[in-house]
């Protein structure tokens, strides 16, 4: 019963909006003209609403998976959301650079291509540095068991979303 309560809204959200690149979906590209946004976004307001909804689902999921106590929730999610925002900003910068190269097409210089490729490869390292920095802060809020379970819970959440997306694609 509980699974149905969470899977039905997640199915709708995943079916309607979930992009293939989850990392690219973590935050909206504010400066992208609306005619360049992927179809899945259906406008800036809908995407922001989707992001708020997904954040709530992820919070609820992490609360259950980590068995967060009421006194932990506010402190943890203040840190967690800040970490996610920093990681998203890094990804947004790389995607912006990639879009500029794509617009230039064959006119992109060798230096521009090299910088964009380097930035894309360096992204995961920079995001890992952010995670490592916040890991130290999480130690002040979470128990050792919760800290250990955090990465597994994040992977489980992503897997759940991707499974729902796969099921919804088969239906369409």
How would you portray this structure in words?
It is globular, with a radius of gyration of 18 Å. The protein has helices at residues 2-17, 44-66, 70-104, 110-138, 144-171. The chain is mostly helical. It contains five helices and no strands. Helices cover 76% and strands 0% of the residues. It has one domain. α1 (2-17) packs antiparallel against α2.
Concise summary:
The chain is 76% helix and 0% strand.
Quickly list its features:
single chain, 172 residues, mainly alpha, 0% strand, disordered N terminus
Write the layout of secondary structure elements.
Elements: H1 2-17, H2 44-66, H3 70-104, H4 110-138, H5 144-171
Helix pairs in contact: 1-2, 1-5, 2-5, 3-4
